Amino acid sequence: MSFLEATIARAKADKKIIVLPESYERRTLDATHKILQKGIAEIILIGNKDEIVSKADGLDISKATIIDPNNYDKLTDLVSQFTELRKSKGMTEAEAGKILKSDALYLSVMLVKAGIADGMVSGAVHSTADTLRPALQILKTKPGTKLVSAFFVIVVPDCEYGADGVFIFADSGLVQNPNPEELAAIAVSSAGSFKQLVQKEPVVALLSHSTKGSAKHPDVDKVLEATRIAKEAAPDLKLDGEYQLDAAIVPSVGVSKAPGSTVAGKANVLVFPDLDAGNIGYKLAQRLAKAEAYGPVTQGISKPVNDLSRGCSAEDIVGVVAITAVQAQGV
């Protein structure tokens, strides 16, 4: 069973409610049709029902719940909650009402906050910043988590490396240039995400252009310090660095460059030193190795809110919704 098939099966076994705010977008509606048809999750769409149904012509979205912010009986309660959450920032009820009626992303996140939905997926037409801003303002970080970061689940066909070709690449979507403390937090969070989603033991490599001192540079020092901090924070994890990519995932190279390591040559969680490296790395795997790439999936938010690439397909949305549903099972 493939990673996606296994994730969909887990989502179906404990069905969650996922809100898709980009409800006038054809890809969203196509994904909704597929999700409902397969029984992956229950779906909430945001907007005018007649307009949504018109744009879904030829698709069956009849089992979706459509919430029109201009005619929603729970809006007053959500406005009060939103006002209370943001009162320290000067939020008034009038302003809160205006935002929730006009901004589907904020309304969607408030539905998650209130427990009406279990998670949100957006990004087909919105930027990452637009998708995550309301989540960070309303849901905030998970207890014990120092920052929100993002990863891609990479599934490489016919690959003997990683967990039968399954990897997590982090951070490939959010944190631009993490300092050692942030890089360590990304490594520990990514290990937890791998265990939750892939259901196998995470083996974490912090990547560099150097392996075990083969090069000297402040960039290498950052990865070394992040490795030290991560090991102190999570001493039971199989986690090590600094490793070049081949030393991290190819057993023969790992044995040669880091003999005796429990990580070298066995890594399935790859932690990149910055967003440039992580983003380039996942796109190389996706385009040249024909890998499936699911994400960017966020980690560290108190409830799951996930971003999409604006070039995503309907099938990509289905996959991220399934991942979001499984994340929600662990909240």
What attributes characterize this protein structure?
Rossmann fold, 2 domains, five-stranded parallel sheet, 16% strand, globular
Oligomeric assembly: single chain
Radius of gyration: 21 Å
- Name the poorly predicted regions: none
Q: What is the general shape?
A: globular
Total helical segments: 13
Q: How much helicity do the residues have?
A: 40-55%
Query: What top-tier CATH class of the largest domain fits best?
Result: Alpha Beta
User: Mind describing the biggest β-sheet?
Assistant: 6 strands, mixed
Total discrete domains: 2
How would you characterize this protein structure?
The protein folds into 2 domains: 3-140 and 309-329, Rossmann fold (3-Layer(aba) Sandwich), CATH 3.40.50.10950; 149-288, Isocitrate/Isopropylmalate dehydrogenase-like (Rossmann fold, 3-Layer(aba) Sandwich). It contains 13 helices and 11 strands. It has helices at residues 3-13, 26-38, 49-55, 75-85, 93-102, 104-113, 128-138, 180-198, 218-233, 245-249, 251-257, 275-288, 314-329; strands spanning 17-20, 42-46, 65-67, 119-122, 149-155, 166-170, 203-207, 238-243, 269-271, 292-299, 305-307. Helix 9 links the parallel strand 7 (203-207) and strand 8 (238-243). Helix 2 packs across helix 13, helix 4 packs across helix 5 (93-102) and helix 6 (104-113) runs parallel beside helix 7 (128-138).
